[in-house]
Design a protein that fits this description.
Pfam family, one: HGTP_anticodon
EC number: 6.1.1.15
GO molecular function, one term: proline-tRNA ligase activity
Protein name: Proline--tRNA ligase
Largest sheet: 9 strands, mixed
Catalytic activity: tRNA(Pro) + L-proline + ATP = L-prolyl-tRNA(Pro) + AMP + diphosphate
Oligomer: single chain
Radius of gyration: 27 Å
Bound molecules: adenosine-5'-triphosphate, magnesium ion
Shape: elongated
Number of helices: 18
């Protein structure tokens, strides 16, 4: 690819609404652009990365014996009525009508559709196991889309579904997929952990999440410091033995603990782009309030002064607004500054629990990065309780070692669904004795678009992205220095460009003219994160040398021109 013909779309400044590094770098490196809340366009560089991820996923699933299919994103409501999920899915599901007034949904997931295929296409135990997958867009009307493609509304998922005649067969395929997932995440070059998980909305029994370790992650993983035990915190609590638990000690800040109605009101009333402005909510308690909560302060991380408490006075919500002075009184903040406020954990959690149980909203308690509860599920009192009860220092449920907490990004999730969907949709096959038998089902998801962000969270520095080789948009970048003064420089650069491409490398040749300074060219390549960079200059060529730098290393080196290709290979 020639830079002169390419849309690199890099930008210097980090947009104010991007709070985590991957979101900032994806915008700055020109990978994506936001169309509307939770909706992103993939630009050429981003799309190259996506395709790389998809290829690895496809190769490993094909190798594991799964069959690729492609189902429509738009699905008839009837199927969802059959499983009872048309209503049960709640606000996450985007519903629509066609011109004949028939109900449809934009698929948030595809269990219903694939089970419909299975009941029509599979008739005998002899055809089983059968494992289908697709790489397809999903739409989930996330209450709070955020962090760019990390939690978007439309996103690409690899979703897979397997069908079985008995539990033994399901166990075997579940294991097979578990192994395939490990190979996929190994090849993607990610630092991850498979963890025991609850199966949530999907129903069923066994379940593992694949968590990419990152401080910005929204999930918390509890793992034993001296065994293989790892579980997401909800699950760790569920399997934890009763007994003495260490007392929480750290101080933390309560952030992002909005009441659903309140936030919706705020957004509507002030037309606030939620990702951009609402960063921190501070909740304060009072003896005399009916709900035990009277003050609510909204703080935008970047625009502290734009959203002040008095601006929110008109908000009518289940929470009453206190005057700004009173809030300041309560939290002891100096005028002009509205937080954050450090409060002891038990205090915070008790208030958050009250908030949650009263209004059924989710909470995300950050501060010392302790825990977080997802928005889309029925996050309630019990889940906050669960998490509250896990602190470092607790004994591991496996009996070995003590629990430590890490933050993670859920990039994959596998479940044993049992007969939840096959029963509802009457997906039977004839068994060995010629008797109709309800099939058992497994399901396997990977967040393709989320992986791009997760990879960046783990691989970056202050100059930009540092792609793992397997998913880099280009493997090699070539910068000819002052080519307008030296035809030989351009000649050598062109020759390297052709040779490397013939060897199968994807190469970005920065052939932009002298209006783009070398400094800008270097900065762009580092921002985009190309693993190998070759600089061709007059001075080097005089000694038969080019300059080489690996993106992940600090040092550059002079390499003989005729050895540079071997070095990269
Ligand atoms: P989360 O807990 O983050 O909301 P989930 O448990 O609802 O995710 P699953 O139903 O398990 O998601 O879907 C499979 C995978 O799809 C997830 O592991 C995740 O990687 C990805 N995914 C889910 N929701 C989103 C989203 N809103 N944006 C991007 N990727 C997503
Ligand atoms: Mg979700
Ligand atoms: Mg989840
Ligand atoms: Mg999940």
């Amino acid at each position: 690819m020639r830079a002169s013909r390419y849309l690199s779309a890099t930008v210097k400044e980090s947009p104010a609404d991007a709070v985590i590094i991957s979101h900032q770098l994806m915008l700055r490196a020109g990978l994506v652009r936001k169309l509307a809340s939770g909706l992103y366009t993939w630009l050429p560089t981003g799309l190259k990365v996506l395709h790389k991820i998809e290829t690895i996923v496809r190769e490993e699933l094909d190798r594991a014996g799964a069959l690729e299919v492609l189902m429509p994103t738009v699905q008839p409501a009837e199927l969802w009525h059959e499983t009872g999920r048309f209503d049960a899915m709640g606000g996450q599901m985007l519903k629509m009508k066609d011109r004949h007034d028939r109900d449809f949904v934009y698929g948030p997931t595809h269990e219903e559709v694939i089970t419909d295929i299975a009941r029509n296409e599979l008739s005998s135990y002899k055809q089983l196991p059968m494992n289908f997958y697709q790489i397809q867009n999903k739409f989930r009307d996330e209450f709070r889309p955020r962090f760019g493609v990390m939690r978007s509304r439309e996103f690409i998922m690899k979703d897979g579904y397997s069908f079985h005649v008995d539990q033994e067969c399901l166990n075997k395929e579940y294991d097979n997929m578990y192994q395939a997932y490990c190979r996929i995440f190994d090849r993607l070059g990610l630092e991850y952990r498979p963890v025991l998980a609850d199966s949530g909305d999907m129903g069923g029994d066994a379940s593992h999440e694949f968590q990419v370790l990152a401080d910005s992650g929204e999930d918390y993983i509890a793992y034993s410091d001296s065994s293989d035990f790892a579980a997401n915190v909800e699950r760790a609590e569920a399997v934890m033995p009763a007994g003495e638990r260490a007392a929480p000690s750290a101080e933390m800040t309560l952030t992002d603990t909005p009441n659903a109605k309140t936030i919706a009101d705020l957004v509507e009333q002030f037309n606030l782009p939620i990702e951009k402005t609402i960063k921190t909510l501070i909740v304060e308690a009072s003896e005399d309030s009916e709900h035990d909560l009277i003050a609510l302060i909204v703080r935008g991380d970047h625009e502290l002064n734009e959203i002040k408490a008095e601006k929110l006075e008109g908000v009518k919500s289940p929470l009453e607004m206190a005057p700004e002075e009173k809030i300041r009184d309560v939290i002891g903040a100096s005028p002009g500054s509205l937080g954050p406020v450090n409060l002891p954990i038990p205090f915070i959690v008790d208030r958050a629990v009250t908030l949650l149980s009263d209004f059924g909203a989710g909470a995300n308690i950050d501060g010392q990065h302790f825990f977080n509860v997802n928005w889309d599920r029925d996050v309630s009192y019990s889940r906050v309780e669960d998490i509250r009860n896990i602190v470092e220092g607790d004994p591991s449920p496996c009996g070995n070692g003590t629990l430590k907490i890490l933050k993670g990004v859920e990039v994959g999730h596998i479940f044993q669904l049992g007969d939840k969907y096959t029963k509802a949709l009457k997906a039977d096959v004839l068994d060995q004795n010629g008797k109709a038998k309800t099939m058992l089902m497994g399901c396997y998801g990977i967040g393709i678009t989320r992986i791009v962000a997760a990879a960046i969270e783990q691989n970056h520095d202050d100059k930009g992205i540092i792609w793992p080789d397997a998913i880099a948009p280009f493997q090699v970048g070539i910068v000819p220095l002052n080519a307008h003064k030296s035809p030989e420089v351009m000649e050598v650069a062109e020759k390297l460009y052709t040779q490397l491409q013939e060897l199968g490398f994807e190469v970005l040749l920065d052939d932009r003219d002298k209006k783009t300074s070398p400094g800008v060219k270097f900065a762009d390549m580092e921002l985009i994160g190309i693993p190998h960079r070759i600089v061709v200059s007059d001075r080097g060529l005089a000694d038969g040398l080019v300059e080489y730098k690996a993106r992940k290393d600090a040092d550059k080196s002079e390499v003989k021109l005729d050895e540079i290709i071997a070095l990269i290979q």
